[in-house]
Amino acid sequence: MKSLLISLLLLGAGLASGCTLQPVQPWQRGVLAQSEMAWDVDPLMATQRRQMQVSKEAASGGPTLGGGGCGCN
Amino acid sequence: MSARSLGSAVLLLSAAMLFPAAATAVEVGAAAPSLRAADAAGRELSLQSLRGQVVYVDFWASWCAPCRVAMPHYQRWQQQWAALGFTVLGVNVDTVRADAERALKRAPVSFPVLYDPQGQWAETFALPTMPTAYLIGRDGVIHYIHAGFREQDLPALEARILSLLGVSR
Amino acid sequence: MKKSKALAALTQAALVLPGLATAAEIQTDYLFSHYQERDIRGSNLGGGSAERYEIQSHLFRVVSPYRDNTVGLNLTYESMSGASPWFIQPGADGKPMQVMSGASIREERVDIEGSLSRALLGGVAAVSLGYSTEDDYQAINGGVEFEIEQLETPITWSGGIGFSHDTLEPVQKTGITRIDEDNKNSVTLYGGAAIIIDAATVAQISVGYQHHDGFLTDPYKQAWFTNLANALPESRPDGRQAWTVSGKLRHHLGSPNAAVHVDYRFYRDDWEIESHTLELAWHQVLPQQWRLSPSLRWYSQSQAFFYAPYYNDFRADGFASSDYRLSPYGALSARVDVLKSIGALSLGGGVEYYEASDSYALKNVDVENPGLVEFLNFTVRLSYRF
Question: What is the value of ipTM here, to two decimals?
Answer without folding.
Answer: 0.87
